[in-house]
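Lesson 9: reading folded outputs for more than one chain in a single document. The general rule is that every protein is listed as its sequence immediately followed by its structure tokens, and records are never interleaved. Here is the first one.
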Amino acid sequence: MTLQGKTAVITGSNSGIGLGVARELARAGADVVLNSFTDRDEDHALASALGEEFGVTARYIQADMSKAEACRALVEKAGACDILVNNAGIQHVAPIPEFSAEKWDAIIAINMSSAFHTTAAALPMMRKAGWGRVVNIASAHGLTASPFKSAYVAAKHGVVGLTKVTALETAREDITCNAICPGYVATPLIEAQIPDTMAKYNMSREDVVEKILLERQPSKQFASVEQVGGTTVFLCSDTASQITGTSISIDGGWTAL
């Protein structure tokens, strides 16, 4: 399908899943706006290279997703937002009694509240254009839970709930809102964790991947950023115009258990 003439804003997209989603949207012809909290020359160069590779307009706009005003300003600075992908997120692991209030507040702000603020800013643009797609990158942890991830699990469950409300409020319009719930995805961040885990447990790479990282993922395979991106493109297609308010799992069977 082609998304030519559409502008996609993807939060948290200068690496990992967000960048993978941006690449697939650009491949489909959408102009893209990349985002993160940094404002480095390499961030802008990344956007330029992406635009040249796929023949689209690609820009980088810095915004701190922990701040409501910055979330809304990102969409406003983009100038148009036909497709909004809420991907920004951080993680922290600790038992509830030891989970600091600062970490809790940051995770809730970046992983959940940012999606509310960007959506609030984008919906008027989508309504004016008569078309829009909101795709929230939630998680398998938006549908199930793990110990020591209280803020992350709470935030991702909240994103799934926000997805449903957004879908209901736009159900009579050509606007949809859906959540994608990945399990473990192969990203540079995950890859960087493997050597330390191998050393900590004196295990082979294969055992670390299968027995620790993918313990709850029955396929014992990572999802790819391309798969998450391809699912996003599908949700933006006419084929998916009656898919709204739902959560699509890309988790190798995790949430089927």
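And here is the second record, again sequence then tokens.
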Amino acid sequence: MQLAVLRAGTESEIDAAFATLVEQHAGALLVGGDVFFFSRREQFVALASRYAVPASYIWRDFAVAGGLISYGVNNNAVFRQVGSHAGRILKGAKPADLPVQQPTTFELVVNLKTAQALGLTVPPSILARADEVIE
């Protein structure tokens, strides 16, 4: 199996990256967690659909927008942790004394409509583990 790493920092570079995926006959795409990518999620989902590229994303918003699958941190849980830390600081805790916390809640979202459009069958074991299945 070959892994190709493509970089994109502008809208046109995203388009070019998808063209490269097609040229390389890539079997799938994993989109990393980047705020720029998040702001362009509609573009990613549209291009993945147009080129029939199965894609996995880190944020659920991509799957909700029509992406195939997402697996990543539950942003609501992360925001609660941030709020808790902020509250402790506002009550006088020194930031340097607070423990470093990592996300502990992750969620799997599967978009069956997209899977069907791509001609893919999602295994029952994945569907059973999914936190949300979009039908």
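What the second record shows: The helical segments are 11-23, 35-39, 41-50, 60-64, 75-90, 112-117, 124-129.
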